[in-house]
Design goal:
Length: 321
């Protein structure tokens, strides 16, 4: 019994259940569960015949949460959960897949566009980048693109450069595909999986004209520093896939990581700093200022860009020129 008047209000069980159901119905959930197949999104009813509609669009006010059966693929026509499986040696990864909800629009883009613009990094074949993009334009690899806004802006500003964008975050993959379609872009492809396997198993030597790593996970705890992506071993591999003259562009708002990046790149014999005096570079105009970055700057974070060029050794021809 509650305090105050000393009288508790009694509600019939059926009435209470109905009221609770009504409250839940008023809540709008514009998201797709982490385990939802886009084909399972509720379809609008054909009111004339009482049958489900033919268009798999999201119904406002209707929750699209759904629990998959065991073993059922998340997106039958989209990215696989673990494309490479256990086919390659276990190693310390620089990323950690995040489980989060996918909006109805992102799910729709994954289902419709993945077969055209997406690829799973399974390590089973060497990619023909000219065939993948439908042209022989230069290709830049972007590792970690978040929700894809900056990627789309750069692709739209430079349609003569192809961008192969890699990430494991499913909402971001769907968002990038959606944005690319909205902007009418044809120079973006989305890769799902481990970028190391892509570089090692699926790209030919000198296949890339550049590499972009913007705001990678800084792994701030000392015991996790071994998980940072920019390490000598990674640059050894990247150097074999970037043609001489190609640019490695990194950016981070974590100053200790920026210093480590600078030290590692300066020490590597296959790369040279593009800045005449060495050190960090000013943010180039072609790298958009993202919302994430703007929020960090408002908090006083310092963002550092690094621009290094793949070295052309003596008697080594400049490929792709």
């Amino acid at each position: 019994m509650s305090g105050g008047t000393g009288h508790a209000r009694t509600v019939p069980a059926a009435q209470g259940t109905a009221a609770a159901a009504a409250r839940r119905a008023r809540k709008i959930d514009p998201t797709v569960s982490d385990s939802l197949n886009a084909s399972e999104v509720p379809q609008p009813a054909d009111h004339a015949h009482g049958q489900p509609g033919r268009h798999p669009s999201h119904v406002p006010g209707v929750s699209v949460r759904h629990t998959r059966a065991k073993g059922e693929p998340r997106f039958p026509d989209g990215p696989k959960a673990d494309p490479a499986g256990a086919h390659f040696e276990r190693r310390i990864r620089s990323f950690q897949p995040r489980r989060s909800r996918v909006t109805a629009g992102q799910a729709d883009a994954l289902q419709r566009l993945w077969s055209r613009w997406g690829l799973d990094i399974d390590g089973h074949e060497t990619l023909d980048l000219a065939d993948l993009f439908g042209n022989t334009n230069p290709v830049v690899l972007e590792i970690g693109f978040g929700m894809g806004e900056a990627t789309v802006q750069m692709a739209a500003a430079d349609p003569g450069t192809n961008i192969l964008a890699v990430d494991v975050h499913t909402p971001g993959q769907g968002n990038l595909l959606n944005l690319a379609e909205q902007e009418g872009l044809t120079n973006v492809r989305v890769a799902n999986g481990d970028a190391i396997i892509l570089l090692h198993e699926m790209l030919r030597p000198d296949a890339l004209d550049g590499l972009r790593v913007f705001f990678p996970d800084p792994w701030p705890k000392k015991r996790h520093h071994k998980r940072r992506l920019i390490q000598p071993e990674f640059l050894d591999l990247a150097a074999t896939r970037i043609r001489p003259g190609g640019i490695v562009h990194c950016a981070t708002d974590w100053e200790p990581y920026a210093e480590q990046m600078l030290d590692v790149l300066n020490a590597h014999p296959e790369f040279e700093n593009t800045q005449p005096g060495g050190g960090f570079a000013p943010r180039p105009d072609f790298r958009p200022l993202t919302r994430f970055e703007a929020q960090g700057l408002e908090k006083g974070h310092v963002v550092n860009d690094l621009l290094f060029r793949r070295v052309q050794h003596h008697n080594q021809p400049l490929t792709g020129a």
